[in-house]
């Protein structure tokens, strides 16, 4: 009987696996097929809209005058009816201390004080507050060369890191202390019929819960608010 030849395992693997040259040729062909439609799409052609790269024309929406008293000074802003108070302060009045964070009323960075109440300026229109008084972070200090008690306390207690949320935190805390002095209750108040004898940490956390600090300076913020609240009574 003639001897039989048994292929070695190496021979079987070589027969079943493509060669390196063949693999590279296949990969190059696949890449060329895939790139062809993309290259064709990127070529300028008549089918592409001619105005796609042209700048958008300026808005032709009518504007209306809005009178505001901001930080004790009268302003007459000519804004579109859809302009938020936040954009009116930043883009029209030039007061950029108020920050735009989420633009959805979730972070509190845009908090200002309107007619004595703190609000999220990104959630309200400027025209809705015509004739009202607005206090931003620029107007918290009693003078240009001085700091408000809360601003000083924030520095002493190291109550900020990046500082982006700080304007909203300061406005919110300023209104918080006034609300507490006026007897306004919170969800943390044990008996809403009576004002707590002092602002506890829980009271401050609850009342400041609408202001988010992504740096996590919450303990220092609470400490700063508490120092001023205890001082002012």
Major sheet details: 5 strands, mixed
Spatial gap, N to C terminus: 113 Å
- Beta-strand residue percentage: 5-15%
Q: For the CA atoms, what is the radius of gyration?
A: 32 Å
Strand order of the largest sheet: 2-1-5-3-4
The CATH topology of the largest domain, please?
Answer: DNA polymerase, domain 1
**CATH architecture type of the largest domain:** Orthogonal Bundle
The helix-and-strand class reads alpha+beta
- Report helical residue fraction: 25-40%
Could you explain how this protein is built, in words?
This protein is 36% helix and 12% strand. The chain has 233 residues and is of the alpha+beta class. The protein has two domains: 78 residues, Ubiquitin-like (UB roll), CATH 3.10.20; 93 residues, [2Fe-2S]-binding domain (DNA polymerase, domain 1, Orthogonal Bundle), CATH 1.10.150. The chain has a five-stranded mixed β-sheet with strand order 2-1-5-3-4, sandwiched between helices. A hairpin with a 2-residue loop joins strand 3 and strand 4. Helix 4 packs across helix 7. The longest helix has 23 residues. About 12% of the residues have low confidence.
């Amino acid at each position: 009987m003639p001897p039989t030849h048994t292929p070695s395992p190496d021979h079987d693997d070589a027969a079943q696996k493509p060669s390196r040259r063949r693999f590279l040729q296949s990969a190059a062909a696949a890449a060329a097929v895939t790139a062809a439609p993309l290259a064709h799409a990127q070529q300028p052609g008549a089918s592409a809209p001619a105005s796609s790269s042209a700048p958008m024309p300026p808005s032709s929406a009518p504007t209306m005058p809005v009178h505001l008293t901001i930080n004790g000074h009268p302003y007459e802003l000519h804004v579109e009816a859809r302009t938020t108070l936040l954009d009116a302060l930043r883009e029209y009045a030039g007061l950029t201390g108020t920050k735009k964070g989420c633009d959805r009323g979730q972070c509190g960075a845009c908090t200002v004080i309107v007619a004595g109440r703190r609000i999220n300026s990104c959630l309200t229109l400027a025209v809705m507050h015509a004739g009202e008084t607005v206090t931003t972070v620029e107007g918290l200090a009693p003078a240009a060369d001085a700091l408000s008690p809360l601003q000083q306390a924030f520095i002493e207690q190291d109550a900020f890191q990046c500082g982006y949320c700080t304007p909203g935190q300061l406005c919110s805390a300023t209104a918080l202390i006034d609300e507490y002095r006026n007897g306004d209750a919170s969800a943390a108040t044990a008996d809403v019929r009576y004002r707590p004898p002092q602002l506890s940490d829980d009271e401050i956390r609850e009342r400041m819960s609408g202001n988010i600090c992504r740096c996590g300076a919450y303990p220092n913020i609470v400490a700063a608010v508490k120092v001023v609240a205890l001082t002012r009574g």
